[in-house]
């Protein structure tokens, strides 16, 4: 089975302590890097998604430092980088081309309740098998995080939800 790891919006804005969107931390980076290394070793395609606003101002302003993917992630030149301008990673992007031939998608990223969830829903509707690595995802508070995963389990029970240690077994 051909597999892809999709990392959604792990960008500087979420790691900027002055940002209203601050929710990233060193533990999240370490876990996502372990996931990247594992998937790369297992010949998975690696795709990074980044959100960018069309405007020159705001938290994800076009060409701003905070709209960049954090440099601490284990990226390679061979990895795909998709820039999106909406919550959807599929709307007006080439992600479907990047996912051609892929059967299973492993998902990690930020914000769980927004862009990660939208990606999961849209990939699910395109009949991909999906595994979300719960502790490689984060949102603004634990209550929203729990609700989002509970709701995905209720509405899309075929989506696997695992923590990293369980996934790496």
Report on the structure:
The chain has helices spanning 26-41, 95-98, 112-125, 142-155, 164-168; strands at residues 3-8, 45-51, 80-84, 104-110, 129-138, 160-162. The model has no long low-confidence stretch (mean pLDDT 96). The protein is of the alpha/beta class. Helix 3 (112-125) links the parallel strand 4 (104-110) and strand 5 (129-138). It contains 5 helices and 6 strands. The protein is globular and about 40 Å long. The chain has one domain: 3-Layer(aba) Sandwich (Rossmann fold), CATH 3.40.50.850. It is 31% helix and 22% strand. It has a 6-stranded parallel β-sheet, sandwiched between helices.
**Rg, please?**
15 Å
- In round numbers, the mean pLDDT is 96
Strand fraction: 15-25%
Provide the helix percentage.
Answer: 25-40%
Principal-axis shape equals globular
CATH topology: Rossmann fold
The major β-sheet equals:
6 strands, parallel
